[in-house]
Amino acid sequence: MTSVDTRNPLFWMTSPGNTPKGERRDFYRPEETGWTDWLMPGTRYKLLYCNLVSGAFSILLQVDPNIEATSHWHVGNLQVYILEGGFHYYDGTVTIDGKTIEDKGTPHSFTVETAGTVHQPFSTETGCLMLAVFDGPIGGYTDDGTLAVMADARLHYYMARDNDAVHNTQLVDYSYGSTELQ
């Protein structure tokens, strides 16, 4: 039997071939999936991508007008791209070099809510529709500061599954495709 030297960088630069397509769709339109109630009143989501191995997940999040979110903690980074409406933190302003300016998310705005952040966003009078890409869970607090929920990828998957809204979710759980290194 011939041994292969996997320590040689040229081994890893040789294509093993394309991954078989299988029976999974590569593209779908989110309107094909129903909304699932999210973690607080006036919010709902569509689970687009869910990695049960790494804990990352992506959702379309719809927030009704004038919703004050509960205080929450980002365990991982959250990337947000606003599609419609908007939201803000605190009073929606920031002071830079002594000058106070508006600092509100509007359509086509992008922000990163970094890991470790604890805050309380507010939706605008038009509400908000955003693409939210989570690197990890989000912890929700009660009004008295007690941790009420740790909403990870698995919880989002179970909530959407119980609402029959995961048939188009791009799911990574190592039950699809190869589980072995090639």
Written description of the protein model:
With about 180 residues, this protein is mainly β. It has one domain (about 40-170): Jelly Rolls (Sandwich), CATH 2.60.120.10. About 10% of the residues lie in helices and about 45% in strands. The chain contains two helices and twelve strands. Strands 1, 2, 3, 5, 6, 7, 9 and 12 form an eight-stranded mixed sheet that branches. A four-stranded antiparallel sheet has the order 8-4-10-11.
Spell the H/E element sequence. HEEEEEEEEEEEHE
CATH topology: Jelly Rolls
Can you tell me the CATH superfamily? Jelly Rolls
Amount of helix: under 10%
User: How many structural domains are formed by the residues?
Assistant: 1
Shape: globular
Radius of gyration: 20 Å
CATH class: Mainly Beta
Distance between the termini: 17 Å
Strand content: 35-45%
Write the layout of secondary structure elements.
Layout: H1 9-12, E1 36-37, E2 43-51, E3 57-63, E4 72-74, E5 78-96, E6 99-105, E7 110-113, E8 118-119, E9 121-134, E10 138-141, E11 147-151, H2 153-162, E12 170-172
Parallel strand pairs: 2-12
Antiparallel strand pairs: 1-2, 2-3, 3-9, 4-8, 4-10, 5-6, 5-7, 5-9, 10-11
Brief sketch in words of this structure:
With 182 residues, this protein is mostly beta strands. It has a single domain, classed as Sandwich (Jelly Rolls), CATH 2.60.120.
